């Protein structure tokens, strides 16, 4: 069974909204090695509509390099109630999102990476579909914006599985859902 890994940049106050405004100073070579390894192990991306729209606009405008090329070429699955079609090698998920994602996970292949944290997480966590959360805790005080797990209800329990420390001060905190929780 394939794993679904969520990767999200988080400021010290729990803010996740607009990481392009506060995270760029921390996107160094060490971060790129981490991000490249995560993406190289994946053969699909799962995205909510807002993350899809932001990433597709950004990555299709970037100069080619191995990471950008991989990001642009990997299949993407977009959960949206408003989009009817998508570009950027993406498919809008038809029908029930939880059933679709569960079916993807049952297929052979590499991991599925989900970038961002928001409304889609409530559904995925309620159905125990996220296997790991990779939270990139960034040493910056953003002050305002959307917060990590803002859309989540019910306080799911997580276990710390691993920590990686970058020289920049970024901590990659890897959490897994505790058994019986989502």
* Radius of gyration, in angstroms, nearest whole number: 16 Å
Number of helices: 5
CATH architecture, please?
3-Layer(aba) Sandwich
CATH class: Alpha Beta
Largest sheet: 8 strands, mixed
Question: What is the CATH superfamily?
Answer: Dihydrofolate Reductase, subunit A
Sequence of secondary-structure elements: EHEHHEEHEHEEE
Based on helices, strands and strand pairing, what is the structural class? alpha/beta
Helical fraction: 25-40%
Structure keywords:
alpha/beta, Dihydrofolate Reductase, subunit A, 182 residues, 8-stranded mixed beta sheet, 5 helices
Overview of the molecule:
This protein has 182 residues and is of the alpha/beta class. The chain has a single domain, classed as Dihydrofolate Reductase, subunit A, CATH 3.40.430. The protein contains 5 helices and 8 strands. A hairpin with a 5-residue loop joins strand 7 and strand 8. The model has no long low-confidence stretch (mean pLDDT 91).
Question: Helices, strands, pairings?
Answer:
Blueprint: E1 4-11, H1 29-40, E2 42-48, H2 49-59, H3 66-73, E3 76-79, E4 90-92, H4 97-106, E5 111-115, H5 119-126, E6 132-138, E7 158-165, E8 171-177
Parallel strand pairs: 1-5, 1-6, 2-3, 2-5, 3-4
Antiparallel strand pairs: 6-8, 7-8
